[in-house]
Amino acid sequence: MLARVRGAVGRTATAAGALVLAGGLGSDIFTLPGATAAAVTAGVGLASNLKVVRAPESVRWTAISLYAAPHTGYAVILITERLTDSTAATLVQAGGIALWTAATWMLRPGLTARELADEAHAQELADAAKAVEETAVEPAAPEYDSPAARWWGETFAVDGGLAPGTVLLDHQQVSDQCVALIIGTQKRGQPVPDISKPGLSAELDLPEEQIDIGPVPGRGAGVRLLVLGQRPVAEAEVEAEVVVDSDAAVWAEIAATAMPGVELIEANTYEMPKELT
User: Fold this and answer.
1) Among 183, 179, 201, which residue's Cα sits nearest to residue 192?
2) How far, in Å, CA of 261 to CA of 277, rounded?
3) Around 145, how many Cα atoms within 13 Å sit in the side-chain half-sphere?
4) Which H or E run contains 178?
5) Which of 47, 124, 125, 242 sits 20 to 30 Å CA-CA off 178?
């Protein structure tokens, strides 16, 4: 409704302006009132079209200039009519009046200025909404304390991974073929989820018997100890196994002839007293 009223007022003002310009060709009585009316009409029109005055900076002055263009052209034609009075100039001015009237009537600069401001406002809103959406969609990249923590976080702790919601708290290289990891949950009070040995075996290409998952001594279910690889065997245990195996072999040879059916349970080694040598 408001657009129709503005359109009707604009067309009426255009027709009235054309009549004043035509009258100005023969009399200077229209010059001062007509120029004053043009200035007042431009000011009132801009004051009542806040969309144009408050348009985004990128198009604000373009929209204001476009809105005021008919009024400016109108005033220029009126002043020119008074400065020249030749027949040729009058014909040129009559052509200018016809051109001004047709352009203002058909192009409707005021409506075009408002549409330009509306498009600029819509573009600003779209850009702001896009920026908010991009900020909301793109989460901040997680920060990791070490390359090992990054490896765990990007390989196993991702959604759909073997240990979602967990973090690598600490790790230690036990030997060349064995590493111990301490895994915790991201949220305090949550237990570490069950980690699949077959899944780890497949992911790491490691035999299941070389994967151990258990509690951390003195800690709750929010942390777990994960040992990967072949655990090292202490040298003392290896030597004891060798000694036991050697004694068992010797006894087996003795028992086969001297004491059949007797099994070696334990063997102790003592230094021979000098008195017996």
Assistant:
1) 183
2) 32
3) 5
4) strand 178-185
5) 242
Q: Which residue has the higher pLDDT, 244 or 59?
A: 59
For residue 21, the model assigns a pLDDT of 82
Q: Which two tokens stand for residue 61?
A: 């002055």
157/207 Cα distance (integer angstroms): 21
What's the confidence (pLDDT) of residue 275?
36
166-175 and 178-185 beta bridge pairing: antiparallel
Q: Tens digits of per-residue pLDDT, 3-54?
A: 677 777 777 888 887 888 887 787 778 888 888 888 888 888 888 888 888 8
Dihedral sign from CA coordinates of 201, 204, 209, 215: negative
**What distance in Å separates the CA atoms of residue 231 and residue 178, rounded to the nearest whole number?**
6
Dist. CA 229–CA 195, nearest whole Å:
16
- Give the number of other CB atoms < 10 A from CB of residue 56: 14
Beta-bridge partners for 171:
181
